[in-house]
Amino acid sequence: MRPSLRRQSLQFGAALSMIVVGIVFLLPILWMLITSVKPEGQIMRYPPEFIPRQVTAENFASVFRRFAFGRWAFNSIVVAAAATLLVVPVDALAGYALARMRFPGREALYMLILSMLMVPLQVTVIPLFIGFTEVKMLSTHWALILPTVGNVTGVFLLRQFFVTVPAELEDAGRIDGANQFQLWWFVMLPLARPVMATVTIITFMSSWNNFLWPLIAVSNDFTRTLPVGIAQFMGGTSGASGSAPTYGMPTAAAAMATAPAVVVFLAMQRWFVRGITTTGIKG
Amino acid sequence: MAERAATSTRLALRRGASSRWYGGATPWVFLAPFLAAFVLFRLGPVIGGFFISLTRWSIVGSPTWVGLANYRALLRDPLFHTSLINTLFFVLLTVPAMVALSLGLALLVNMRLAPRIFARTSIFLPYVVMAAVVGVIWNWMLDSNFGLVNYGLKLVGLGPFRWLTDFKLAMPAVAGVTIWWTVGFNMIIYLAGLQDVPRELEEAAMIDGAGALAVLRHVTLPMLTPTTFVVLMLTTINAAQVFDQIYVMTGGGPGTSTLTLVQYLFYQAFQSFNLGYGSAVAYFVFLLLAVFGIIQLRLVHQQVTS
After folding, report:
1. Chain A residues 20-59 with CB within 8 Å of chain B
2. Nearest chain A Cα to B282, which residue?
3. Is residue A8 located within the same domain as residue A106?
4. In which domain, by residue range, is A16 found?
5. Does B22 touch chain A (CB under 8 A)?
6. Which domains does chain B have, with CATH numbers?
7. What is the pLDDT of residues A260-272, one digit of tens each?
């Protein structure tokens, strides 16, 4: 009787701490959402009001009125989608060759590719800036899209998957007269769907959230992406310039920028988590 | 899901015995698109960056070769010293706390209790939020007058604190926010590691009369050593490269109290347009990471041999 009572109270305590911890982590995001629907005049209140007295869409409307938010969102979608559409097939081709074909220099090449995982990306931004300036492509979508194709994570993930595929499957395809490209397309890619889903998620999210390079590479609203856009107009509203800070518009913009990422995450949690556990790499 | 992921890693580590020999052009045709991008946007810039660091180069005009002069100047540059110390401070503030907290949270949400899915999802959710949004959320949460954090602290009789404008508090505040933002990511890695701890081992220890804490200390934690190594390495690498959240929360301020190495790189290269000098800072970050990596590999080596 007594041990089980003790066990039960321990379990109750653990369950309770799970709920508390969950709420603590969620609270800042919820507070952003609550703030975004309050009229500016009711945001700074003491004590804080967790249930808005009045709900308004005014902050959301101002974001579109006063900033190129729609354009930033469009740019973010174009860049992330194009990057993903390029990276997945390119990495699947390379990963396949590295996994299933033995050729002179393969090991050295793979080591060279992997070694780039150790080099901080910040090392590349100055040369990339100079390069894109030289070819007059700074502040274009391409300047944001193309460098992601050089990322190594996807190749690594796909190569690791392709080495596990039994040779018999390829042999069967060969007997049926498939050429190398057909083997890749008809035999390998259908098997690799889960890994490709992971690579898709990692690529899309890291492009969607990418900050440093877009901050450097783009200097106009026409090509600017959401993360940089939000960061820049925050500078104007945070009160750093001496005026009183306002939080209605920033939280509204932040809520709109976060919603797609949260939806994608909740819908594809499985692939997301798998991406982390198989690589431990952010993308 | 984590179990399956862990298994797939293990499978993937087994070498494919089935690849065929190709002497001709076929592999290179498959590799060409990736290699082109890899050389142009990754390998090339990494090598090029080193040569740029050996020049004096402002964005207008052409580069002048100066050898190691930029690196020598770095050693005497007080702002560089500040940013190096701040970066190490940030590493110290975040890494141990991140390892301990992500392990603790993983152990908690690994218990088979009803609210674990809710807890797991909530803890991970901040990780999908972009840096600029992290900045918006926490500038507001940490507002000196109306912020939720100061409100909560006042309820227990503390504060108010000027989190982001106080020279002493700004870096700890940014470190705390970073932990909120990314601890879920590390927790997931630990959760995957926990799936690999054989249940029988823990049960055997229990049968031998070991209490829950003893099992944790003598069975679970030792089994998690490789995972801890991964988490340690990733959090150190990310902390040494910290930029985004500082840029949006404090911009390096107040004063230079949150100026980090990558912040300084950005300032030198893209605000003062000293591209050569900025590259030297970038390569120093690279060097620092290499040193961290070697130290950690040494530690693991000692662990394994002792």
Report:
1. 21-23, 25-29, 31-32, 35, 43-48
2. A123
3. no
4. 2-58
5. yes
6. 2-10+78-305 (1.10.3720.10)
7. 888 888 888 777 7
